[in-house]
Amino acid sequence: MARSIDPAASPQRGFIPARNDEERFLMRHIEDLARTAQIRGIARYSAFLSDREQELACAALNRAGAESFRFEGGWPDAERKVLCLEPEGSYGVCPVCCVRLTCRTQAGAALPAHKDYLGSLMGLELRREALGDIVLPADQPGVAYVFALEPAAQLIHRELFQAGRTELTTELLELGEVPQFPHAERELRTATVSSLRLDAVLAAMLRCSRGMAAELITAGRVGINHLPADKPHAAVFEGDVFTVRGKGRYALTALPGKSKKDRAIIEYFQY
User: Fold this and answer.
1) Residue 232 Rama label (left phi>0; alpha psi -120 to 50; beta)
2) How far is Cα 218 from Cα 231, in angstroms, rounded to an integer?
3) Most buried by CB count within 10 Å: which residue of 24, 31, 151, 249?
4) What gap in Å lies between CA 133 and CA 271, rounded to an integer?
5) What share of the chain is helix, strand, coil (3-state, %, to 5)?
6) What is the dihedral of CA 242, 248, 249, 254, to 10 degrees?
7) Residue 179 clears pLDDT 60, i.e. is over it
8) Are 168 and 102 in contact (CB under 8 A)?
9) What is the pLDDT of residues 17-51, one digit of tens each?
10) Which is nearest to 99 in space by CA: 145, 48, 158, 167?
């Protein structure tokens, strides 16, 4: 695809402050954890946080003056992570654990998908914030790794026997026993759009009409970076992640410039 690369850096999406009571409560909770850790010199940990919640947590930590913290998800590329506040000299133990699930099924039988595992975990009446990532390594068909807070991991180990219609065996692992997972190979795609509006970019990603993309947005089926998006004309930025209910999730990886026909070039992949 012919292009003329714009040497200027692509604009980035700025921080979006807390938009509702739930997000404001999370920020106050994080500030309380940080102050307790600082004043009393004891380790404190959050539940699992989404990308958006991690962003809010960083803002709350900055407001509280916290300098020493980290996020732990159990594996290097984790999306959902626990905030760890561990002052020097404290002896906290990170609550993240891992449960390996192994399918008991005949060769060639259909294996559970991510949604099947998540549905079975929710059937145990676990809170979502007690669960981290669910990883299905490409090199281990029929095996899934569930990262969870310690009490939830114990419950999964004791009570989870099935995902979908497939029987499972479970094994608790120390984080040091979790193998390295192969990086997911995702096909990077390129398209051109008339403008960097949400409806135009979404139409290119979904390969549908702009009108259909606008209908998905106004119907409340689209989110950007874990926040609901309801305006077709909303601007998009490099690094944005789009979740379309019933369609999948897409990441806008780059905005390389413009084509010879003065259309904006986008690079993206589908998870």
Assistant:
1) alpha
2) 7
3) 31
4) 14
5) 30, 30, 40
6) -80
7) yes
8) yes
9) 999 999 999 999 999 999 999 999 999 999 999 99
10) 145
Structure tokens given for 166? 């497939």
Cα distance between residue 116 and residue 229, in whole Å? 27
**What distance in Å separates the CA atoms of residue 60 and residue 27, rounded to the nearest whole number?**
5
End-to-end CA distance of the chain: 23
Q: How far is CA 200 from CA 17, 76, 197, 266, in A?
A: 26, 33, 5, 11
The candidate with the shortest Cα–Cα distance to 200, out of 143, 261, 266, is 266
Question: What is the SS3 assignment for 189-236?
Answer: EEEEECCCEHHHHHHHHHCCCHHHHHHHHHCCCEEECCEECCCCCCEC
Rounded Cα gap, residues 141 and 213, in angstroms: 35
pLDDT tens per residue, range 207-239: 999 999 999 999 999 999 989 999 999 999 999
**CB of 271 closer than 8 Å to CB of 186:** yes
Burial class (CB in 10 A: 0-12, 13-18, 19+), 252: buried
| Cα(205)–Cα(201) distance, integer angstroms | 6
What is the residue type of 10?
Answer: S
Q: Tell me which residue of 225, 188, 180 sits closest to 77, measured CA to CA.
A: 180
Report yes or no: 190 and 258 within 8 Å, Cβ to Cβ: no
- Contact between 242 and 206 under an 8 Å Cβ cutoff? The reply is no
* Antiparallel, parallel or unpaired: β 162-163 and 227-228: unpaired
Confidence at residue 244, expressed as pLDDT on a 0 to 100 scale = 97
